[in-house]
Specification:
By secondary structure, the chain is α+β, with helices and mostly antiparallel strands. The protein contains five helices and five strands. It has two domains: 2-72, no CATH class; 76-146, no CATH class. It has helices at 2-14, 19-25, 30-38, 45-72, 100-105, and strands spanning 75-78, 81-85, 90-93, 109-110, 116-119. Strands 3-2-4 form a three-stranded antiparallel β-sheet. It has a two-stranded antiparallel sheet with strand order 1-5. Mean pLDDT is 87; it is low at 133-155.
Amino acid sequence: MSKELLKQIGENWFGDQWQGPLARELSVGERSLRRWVAGTDGIPEGIWRDLLLRLEARYNYAKFYLGEVKSILGQVQVCSFQRWDSARGENVQGPCKSTPARIAKIGGEPILNTSEWVPADAVDAEGRLKPTAFSPSLSGDGFQTQVTDGPKSSR
């Protein structure tokens, strides 16, 4: 699999004529790269580490530019967050996703991997994702004012 993965990465980054550009990117000779792809020699661990660094950099650049383009198109980033509740003595999660600016303003902390992009009109003036038919009721700061178990049965 490793030689196939190297080939896939090279083709994705540089197209059909990928071997020379990838060899230069990794600062290795084209012959070495060809031997790795042919399976004649094993791919050194250091090459995988170099590829990992380059993949992470490209991923981070892509995320940044993706966010910039989404902003240009009128989308807004929101994410789940938590903040300290002194009465409970613990962090509590807010009931609605909010913009990073709002989260910072109220002293919250974004929860990793909960980010999404929504149309600007899906966010209220305070930076909260607007409630839908399935959202909990919100107090002025975006936290629930009352917790219920849902509708009661008529039995």
